[in-house]
Each structure stands twice: as structure tokens, then as C-alpha cells.
TrEMBL record:
Keywords for this protein: Alginate biosynthesis, Membrane, Periplasm, Signal, Transferase, Transmembrane, Transmembrane helix
Main location class: periplasm
GO molecular function: transferase activity
Location of the AlgX/AlgJ SGNH hydrolase-like domain: 149-281
Species: Haloechinothrix aidingensis
Protein name: AlgX/AlgJ SGNH hydrolase-like domain-containing protein
InterPro entries registered for this protein in UniProt: ALGX/ALGJ_SGNH-like
UniProt pathway: Glycan biosynthesis; alginate biosynthesis
BP GO annotations: alginic acid biosynthetic process
Compartment list: Periplasm
Low complexity: compositionally biased ranges: 134-143
């Protein structure tokens, strides 16, 4: 047999060779069969248990990953894993058990979302896939993603995304500011008013309970200072930090709860007042605001690390004319347009307005209902659809364009609100339909 013949592989599949042959490999070894069975159970469990009446719970302060669309190409297959993980029954119980065992036996929290699996977003962006080396938005993390939840002192918890948003990005705040200014100029050139509220992160307003040392602490400090220096330079970007700190001093407690990543109703009141004053200066002079009971609900951070916890807050009455409380519950779902309307009284903005907001807007809704007589609220993630054209069309019959965006969403400077193409779409549509 010549050398060429010696290098020729057998003309049959390796599993069909005699067992004694050096190249023989079984088609499915025991471990392969086990892996296939486990995979089948993993993907079938959500379907089977759903048919039996079990329902997966939202335990990570975000919507459950939707079933991937067959039209997504390879994205259908890459999207199956996060869908199956989110819809596994009793996942919340499994996380709780893992936390109990890890803390009881090893004295440390379990490695849930330790950076290798990405960080879930706070209900404001719906990730398609969590990948190693990326955050939940698909941004490269540089290999140093924070835990999903950072455990601070005195039982305080912080959202890891707040750290990642600062330290896993190359920031160009001057470019971000220039794009926002272009959006503002385009809106105002069409005869409309524009205002943008930046909801500060918890670690910005209440940094005192962050751990004494944590990865990228210097990065967080430096980026925070740089970011807010740029915000302060733009008079149309509404900075609520001082007002939130004033509320905290009056109450004797911070306006951000110990176990939640969002502000309380104090932030909602401050946001409503800031927006109203931005479009009609002096309108809130006659407002009367007072405590009107309390509320409680599940905190958003504990479930991410296998715990549970409640958050308590104060609700307020807002009398825009100084005589009658106009706050009311209007629902919390504004993934589709949420129209808020009422008869205007003195102290209320009575021109048609639209607010593009995120989860921080939820606690502001009762107070926006008391301060704006004709308001439509929509989640700003809708700008990602069809290049922002649908949202631009909804703005045509509005005289006021307002935006609320979380600091942790704006800091990476890659959100739809600063996308040049979307800005062009919005400003062109409004320019073609000016307010006379």
C-alpha cells in the first residue's frame, strides 16, 4: 500500500467501522445521549408545564423573553435558550434554594448573574440574548461586568447595570449632547416645546451604602462626574438630583428604597413639576402637595439574587389650583400609547403633550395626570421600531414633546433617543407638520 493510500480515510461513517478499528466511534455515546435527553427536557419543560397550568413569573424586573420568531433566521435558534430559561417553571424557587444553600454553607451569595451571563435590564429594554462577554443589550462588557445586584452596606442593594453602563463602554458625552441638542432644535423649530428629564441612578443619589470596595469603583466615580458635568451645561436637560436630595432631607430618608432600583413617589412629583415648569414657567407656584397615605409592593432587586423583599413608599395629593386633589391611578402599562386626559384647572398644562418615558415614569403617572390635562405616555423603546416613524407620526398633533430617560440608559450613549437616523426621522416629520 503506498503512502497516499495510507492517508485515505475509510469510505464509511466512523460508527460503521468494526469496533476493533482505530477510527471507530459510536454514533451516540452514553454521554451524548444523556446530553440530548437533557436538552429535550430543558426545551420541552416550559411547553409541557404551560399546558398543565404552570406559569413562569417575572422575577428579574423585566419582561419574560418572548418566543423567538421563525423569521429571525439563526436568531430563532439563538433565542431559544433565553426563552427556555425565562419560562422554566419554579425558577424563582430554584434561585431561592441556591441562595439559601450558598449563604448557609459558604457564607456568600450564589454566583447568579456574576457577569458571565450578562446583566438583565430594568424593564426598559428587552434583550434578545445574553452572551458571555456581553451585557443584556448585546454590548461588549470588556470582561468585567458587575454582578446583577451589588450588595452594599446595611442591607442595601444596587443594580449592577448601573456600574456596567459606566465602565463597559467608550463614552463620547460631547457627541451625545450634540445629538440631543439636534433633537431639541428640530422639535422647537417646528413650533413645539421640548424637555428631557434625566432620572438619576440610585448609586448617583444614594452612594453612601455602596460597598467600601467593588470592581471599577474609580471608573464609576469618574464617569459620573463627567456625565453630569455635560448635563448641567444644557438648560433643556432637567437635572433632578438637587430636588431629590432636598426631598430626602425633608423626609429623613432617601427617596430611593433600600431594595429597589427606582425612586419613590417623591421622584414622580419632582419629575411632574420639572416638566410642567419647563414648558410653562411659573405654573406650579400655586400647587399644594401633601402626603396622602402609603403603598407597598415587591422590590425589584431581591429576586435577582434569590431573595424576596417589599418596598414601602408614600403617596401624595397634588392640588394644581391649590384647592382640589387631581391625582388618580391611570394604569402602569405604556408599551402602547397611554392617553391621560381631564378637564384643565389653573395650574395644569392644557396643551396636548406626549411623554416618552421608561420605568421611572411609573411613579410619576398619578402626578402627571394632575398636572397635564392632555397627555399621551409611551415607552421610548418604541423608537426602535420602523426607525421611529410611528412615534414621529404620533407627535404630529402634539404641542409638547417630553422625554424621561434613566441615567443608566443614557450613559452608554447608544440608545434610540440619540440615534442620528431616528432623530432625523422625528425632526423631519415634525418639520413637515409645524405648529402654527
Amino acid at each position: 500500500m503506498n503512502r497516499g493510500a495510507q492517508r485515505t480515510l475509510p469510505p464509511v461513517h466512523e460508527s460503521w467501522l468494526p469496533r476493533q478499528h482505530v477510527l471507530y466511534r459510536p454514533r451516540h455515546a452514553t454521554r451524548q445521549w444523556l446530553a440530548l435527553v437533557c436538552a429535550a427536557v430543558f426545551f420541552a419543560a416550559p411547553v409541557v408545564t404551560y399546558g398543565l397550568g404552570a406559569r413562569a413569573a417575572e422575577i428579574e424586573n423585566r419582561e419574560l423573553t418572548p418566543f423567538p420568531s421563525p423569521s429571525a433566521g439563526w436568531g430563532f435558534f439563538t433565542g431559544m435558550a433565553p426563552w427556555a430559561v425565562d419560562h422554566l417553571p419554579f425558577r424563582d424557587g430554584a434561585i431561592t434554594v441556591a441562595d439559601t444553600v450558598s449563604r448557609g454553607l459558604f457564607g456568600e451569595p450564589p454566583p447568579l448573574g456574576d457577569g458571565s451571563e450578562g446583566v438583565p435590564l430594568p424593564g426598559d429594554q428587552r434583550p434578545d440574548e445574553d452572551a458571555a462577554g456581553e451585557d443584556a443589550a448585546g454590548n461588549e462588557t470588556g470582561g468585567h461586568a458587575a454582578p446583577r445586584v451589588v450588595e452594599g452596606t446595611d442591607g442595601w442593594l444596587y443594580l449592577g447595570l448601573e456600574i456596567d453602563s459606566r465602565c463597559d463602554e467608550q463614552h463620547d458625552f460631547d457627541e451625545m449632547r450634540a445629538r440631543l441638542r439636534r433633537l431639541r432644535d428640530g422639535v422647537e423649530a417646528s413650533g413645539r416645546d421640548f424637555a428631557l428629564v434625566v432620572a438619576p441612578d440610585k448609586l448617583t443619589v444614594v452612594p453612601d451604602h455602596l460597598p467600601d470596595s467593588y470592581a471599577e469603583r474609580d471608573c464609576v466615580t469618574d464617569v459620573n462626574q463627567e456625565f453630569w458635568r455635560r448635563i448641567e451645561a444644557e438648560d433643556y436637560l432637567l437635572d433632578l438630583r438637587a430636588e431629590l436630595e432636598r426631598w430626602g432631607e425633608v423626609l429623613g430618608v432617601p427617596v430611593y428604597p433600600r431594595l429597589d432600583s427606582h425612586w419613590g413617589d417623591e421622584g414622580g412629583v419632582a419629575m411632574a413639576r420639572a416638566l410642567a415648569e419647563a414648558v410653562e414657567p411659573g405654573i406650579s407656584r400655586q400647587w399644594e402637595i401633601g402626603v396622602d397615605g402609603g403603598w407597598s409592593g415587591p422590590a425589584d432587586l431581591p429576586p435577582m439574587i434569590g431573595r424576596s423583599g417589599e418596598v414601602e413608599g408614600r403617596s401624595y395629593r397634588l392640588e394644581p389650583d391649590g384647592e382640589g386633589d387631581r391625582t388618580r391611578e391611570v394604569g402602569e402599562d405604556f408599551r402602547t400609547p397611554l392617553d391621560i386626559g381631564s378637564t384643565a384647572v389653573p395650574g395644569m398644562v392644557d396643551r396636548p403633550a406626549m411623554l416618552l418615558g421608561d420605568s421611572f415614569t411609573i411613579r410619576a403617572l398619578p402626578y402627571l395626570a394632575a398636572s397635564f390635562a392632555d397627555l399621551t405616555v409611551l415607552h421610548h423603546d418604541n423608537l426602535r421600531e420602523d426607525g421611529g416613524q410611528a412615534v414621529a407620526d404620533m407627535l404630529v398633533d402634539k404641542e409638547i414633546v417630553a422625554v424621561q430617560i434613566a441615567e443608566r440608559t443614557l450613559v452608554p450613549d447608544d440608545h434610540a433617543i440619540v440615534d442620528p437616523d431616528i432623530i432625523d426621522t422625528v425632526t423631519k416629520t415634525l418639520a413637515d407638520n409645524p405648529i402654527e
